[in-house]
Predict the structure.
Amino acid sequence: MPARVVVATELAETFRALGHECRIRIVEELAHGDRGELDVHSLVEILKVQQPTVSQHLSVLRHAKLVKQRREGRSVFYSLTNRGLASWLLQGLRFLDTRSQDAEELSRAVEDVRRVWR
Amino acid sequence: MPARVVVATELAETFRALGHECRIRIVEELAHGDRGELDVHSLVEILKVQQPTVSQHLSVLRHAKLVKQRREGRSVFYSLTNRGLASWLLQGLRFLDTRSQDAEELSRAVEDVRRVWR
DNA sequence: AACTTATACTAATATTCATTAATTAGAATA
DNA sequence: TATTCTAATTAATGAATATTAGTATAAGTT
């Protein structure tokens, strides 16, 4: 298999792993937690999503090797495998279409988020 | 709707648009064509995929505003909306897991591609 | 046992993708 | 203008696959 196809396939898989609002938020929350990590319970509270659902999304990110787990007592803490992921992801904001007229809300939201997620 | 959710949703959609091997390759090919653009016919030849299939993938990228079209005679030329997309995408190579032992092929492929796609 | 997280399973829903066929758009020629 | 050829988009199909959330249960820890 040509290198280009191998790599494109892998990249595509990574993108798909990031292809859900919830998982994007998990990545950002992980990056901005105090110690760069959060346990599942905290994520459930932050995202306001049921626990099994969070676990499933974490499982997707885990399979894509984007996050890693660490057990501490009865809690499992998640963190980014590569700290650069969150900021790379934010650089992707450039490619959102904030020009079109009906994208005013998005435009404002992007500004907000740039500040919050830095 | 909170800004974080708005942005995460949009980002996720963009990521999903990139979530197919074929579309990744289209983006890279567009970026590396002589004039930064290619017509559909050229893409068909390069990717060795049927023409309607290419058109569909292009349509996905178009809806995500990642590419734009320009008609010249009977040909339609595509180019990236934002020239930075291809290199940002390549920076994502960092997040592919090339450490695990069975990822030797991938590791080599990534090196190759870094050279070719620069 | 109590607490936290992961997994199994379900069911609904959705999507995705490639293929074939039909359609639109432009160019060339009669 | 009508016809024809080429290029590309769109529509329609259909199969496969996936996704998601929910409920229930299991597993690991204290």
